[in-house]
Specification:
Elements lengths: L6 E9 L2 E10 L4 E6 L8 H11 L3 E11 L6 E3 L1 H15 L10 H6 L4 E3 L4 H70 L5 H14 L3 H20 L4 H20 L4 H21 L4
Parallel strand pairs: 3-4
Antiparallel strand pairs: 1-2, 2-4, 5-6
Length: 287
């Protein structure tokens, strides 16, 4: 099964000291690019969270936000005096550069992250709970990416069916189109009432047939379609492989268009390019 790179997950867990919640958002990206937003008290989790993402995902830009609503009932608030002194010293240093600085508000100092802390019994237990909750959120994110990936595979399968139908229809029309082209050339020479060497005319018609031969392009289109189906069925991190195959499909469709000598073959080439472009846009979201 292939996975999409677009998904959202949110989980929440309540404990003795408050409520933890994770929000995970992922979108398509060439590589795995995590962006973490963690409260100051949970900074030690960053390495473990990044490793969990690396183990669970291969591509995508992933935003991970942790929120902690602390339960202060019955807990004694404390001031981190060392941090407060550092903050006041820094504020006084900046104030010295200003002609008329505003007085420092103690409440603003208390509002600074890490100055006012609650008497938390076991920070390690909180970190462990947050990490466990993150694993749950990551699982939900992966499930969401899998569901959307299955839908993308279904849509790609429909486009592949359409491409196969276009190739089969064009392959069946080629003998008729070549015969029509031959008739047009013979009619044109007849109207000109020119004396034409039959052997030379036959050579020109053979050359035209060779230039207009698209059997090789049709065969390669069919081969690429079969390979796309195989990759989709195999699953895994298939996005880059599928993107390469979209380029190859488009190359054959372009060649088909350049060899077109009949309105029907021109239209078929246009239809194929539209279908391939629709697939390419979907493939950009596959992991």
């Amino acid at each position: 099964m292939v996975h999409s790179m677009t998904a959202f997950a949110r989980v929440e867990g309540a404990g003795a000291h408050g409520t933890l919640s994770w929000e995970l958002r992922s979108v398509n990206h060439r590589y795995l690019e995590p962006h973490l937003r963690l409260p100051e008290a949970f900074r030690d989790l960053e390495g473990a969270v990044r490793e969990a993402l690396r183990q669970g995902l291969s591509r995508g830009k992933v935003e991970c936000t942790l929120r902690f609503a602390e339960e202060n009932t019955g807990q004694r608030l404390q001031v981190d005096e060392n941090r407060a002194r550092q903050l006041v010293a820094a504020a006084e240093q900046v104030a010295a550069l200003i002609q008329q600085p505003a007085p420092l508000n103690p409440l603003e100092v208390l509002a600074w992250p890490g100055v006012l802390v609650a008497d938390v019994a076991d920070p390690q237990a909180l970190n462990a709970a947050a990490l466990q909750l993150f694993e749950q959120a990551l699982g939900e994110l992966r499930n969401g990416r899998a569901r959307e990936g299955a839908e993308l595979a279904r849509l790609l399968g429909e486009r592949l069916d359409d491409i196969t139908a276009e190739v089969a229809a064009l392959r069946g029309l080629i003998p008729e189109m070549l015969a029509n082209q031959r008739q047009k050339i013979e009619t044109r020479f007849a109207e000109m009432r020119a004396e034409v060497d039959p052997q030379r005319l036959e050579q020109e018609l053979v050359l035209l047939a060779q230039k207009s031969d698209v059997a090789e392009e049709l065969d390669r289109l069919a081969t690429h379609v079969a390979e796309v189906r195989r990759v989709l069925k195999a699953g895994g991190a298939a996005g880059r492989r599928l993107d390469f195959l979209m380029q190859e499909l488009n190359r054959e469709a372009n060649t088909l268009g350049s060899k077109a000598f009949d309105p029907r073959s021109t239209q078929a080439a246009v239809n194929l390019k539209v279908l391939i472009e629709q697939m390419r846009e979907q493939v950009q979201n596959i992991e």
